[in-house]
Design brief:
- The chain is mainly β.
- The chain has two domains: about 90 residues, Immunoglobulin-like; about 120 residues, Immunoglobulin-like (Sandwich).
- A four-stranded mixed β-sheet has the order 4-1-7-8, with no helix packed on it. The protein has a four-stranded antiparallel β-sheet with strand order 3-2-5-6, with no helix packed on it.
- It is elongated and about 70 Å long.
- About 5% of the residues have low confidence.
Length: about 260
């Protein structure tokens, strides 16, 4: 009786092993792979350098593993099994995470573009091009206001308009739809001397200041045949209270928009 049971058990074990082999063969030996690439272009105006890591691995180019001022890096990699890639940008000194991005196979070739300085980060800089000047001698502008309400705490969350005047008070135009996350409409007008524009910030489609009871005016230069991407920035006084709006940052000074 025992001699009959042993062959049966052996046969069952062999059969199970064969089935296991068959099931294992049905699973691909290699993970699904897809090439990927990210083009990173930015400008770091912070006092500390920044580092860029993909899935925890810091990107190194030659002996460079951190960036101050211009950031230009092309990184090629492989997506395995459609898994996302995590890009993290940190302050090298403090290790503070400044920004993170997810790369997916839905867009295997992607671009990350940014401008950063102390307490300011602007994403997707290259997604917006300067407006096209249509007449010789004109000056043109688009505006974005990422620090809106940072110090003023005005309570107003809508879009702003900018009433633009020469130093003699003559209105040269009104730029519409200035917001925190997207650039405004494009405005252009004939440049003149002195090349100074005073822009009053008001609630959209009104002449009412976005800060109740306080007129907010910022000053900028107009240059003939030049189109700017101006970043408005709320500034504070020594007590941490709202003081003014700065308009000195022009992204055109830091990026080449003609190549994109």
């Amino acid at each position: 009786m025992k001699t009959k049971i042993v062959p049966i058990l052996l046969f069952s074990i062999v059969l199970l092993l064969c089935q296991a082999c068959i099931n294992e063969d049905m699973v691909p030996y290699y993970e699904e792979q897809q090439p990927g690439k990210v083009v990173i272009q930015g400008y770091n105006a912070q006092k500390d350098s920044i580092q860029i890591a993909v899935d925890g691995k810091i990107l190194v180019e030659g002996k460079t593993n951190a960036y101050i001022k211009k950031v230009a890096k092309n990184y090629e990699f492989v997506f395995y099994s459609n898994k996302t890639k995590l890009v993290e940008i940190t302050n090298k000194v403090s290790k503070q995470l400044l920004q993170s991005y997810q790369l997916t196979t839905a867009k295997p070739i992607d671009t990350i573009s940014f401008y950063t300085k102390e307490d300011l980060w602007i994403n997707n800089v290259l997604a917006t091009k300067p407006g096209k000047i249509t007449q010789t001698g004109n000056a043109g502008f688009k505006f974005i206001f990422p620090t809106l309400n940072k110090y003023s705490a005005s309570g107003y969350t809508g879009k702003l308009d900018g009433i633009m005047r020469k130093v003699n008070g003559e209105v040269v135009g009104v730029v519409k739809n200035i917001g925190k996350d997207n650039f405004s409409d494009f405005i252009e007008f004939p440049s003149s001397l002195p090349p100074i524009i005073r822009m009053e910030l008001v609630k959209h489609n009104t002449t009412e200041s976005y800060i109740s009871g306080r007129q907010v005016i910022t000053v900028m230069l107009m240059l003939p045949n030049k189109s700017g991407l101006i970043v408005l920035d709320e500034r504070k006084d020594g007590n941490g209270k709202f003081q003014s709006v700065d308009a000195s940052l022009n992204l055109v000074d830091f990026f080449d928009f003609t190549a994109h």
